[in-house]
Amino acid sequence: MRPLRRWLLPFAVVGMLAVALAACYLPDDFKAEIRIGADGAYGITYEGYLTWVPLYTDIRDRKLSPKEAAEKIAGIEHDLKRDSGFKEIRSLGNGQFRVRYDRQGRFTRGESEMITFVRRNALILYVKMDKNNRVTIAGNMPQGDRARDLVRLGLGVNGQLRVTTGAYVSESNAQTVGKHGPFRTYDWQIKPTDRRAPKLVIDLK
Q: Among positive and negative, which fits the CA dihedral 188, 190, 195, 201?
């Protein structure tokens, strides 16, 4: 896939809430792009904030001493650094992190593979290739009580997502579609009130 110019311009509270919000990285104020080439090459970039919600609520509710909070923050940083795609991680001291992520690779035709961000058990979005050479890109939006709980905490998903590809797109719920040279761009402006997750399917046959 021909290199593209990087597109990062002007992308419980207690009790029951603790269960609902467990294992939750929440993206905010982000610019993200996923690039898929007709040959299976891919690139994923993300620049913005990630909030580990359980830690955010514990710090906000003063359940942790400064030492305990620092130890948990260090643990989150260590967890993120296990993925070499994270090029920059900066803690804001309250369970929130400013991050820069950049990952590139290539899918193998006829084989199943899935790339997840951030983790399979803390999923924000994924890019999946199946044995029929179909690539599915989908996000994960908070729903129901979980979404309302996040709003009460003053949190929500807010940012921009773009998918860029020259391959055939068979399904998409993008809000806008444009062109970037020989490539098409599919864009979503995501707000905290949105419940419909981004989705796009590419056929690489």
A: positive
130-165 pLDDT, tens digit per residue, is 999 999 999 887 777 777 777 777 888 889 999 999
In terms of residues, how long is the chain? 205
Question: Is the CA virtual torsion 140, 146, 147, 151 positive or negative?
Answer: negative
Q: What's the order of all strands across the beta sheet hosting 183-190?
A: 86-91, 96-106, 41-52, 25-36, 158-165, 183-190, 176-180
Average pLDDT, the chain: 85
Give 205's pLDDT tier (boundaries 50, 70, 90).
confident
Q: Contact 122/25 with Cβ under 8 angstroms?
A: yes
pLDDT digits (tens, 9 = 90+) for 1-45: 333 333 333 232 233 333 333 448 999 999 999 999 999 999 999
Residues 6+ apart with CB under 8 A from 154: none
Helices (H), 82-126: none
Q: Please answer whether residues 186 and 198 qualify as being in contact, where contact means their C-beta atoms are separated by less than 8 angstroms.
A: no
Q: How many CB atoms lie within 10 A of CB 157?
A: 22
Distance, CA of 62 to CA of 57 (rounded, Å): 8
Distance CA 58, CA 54 (A): 6
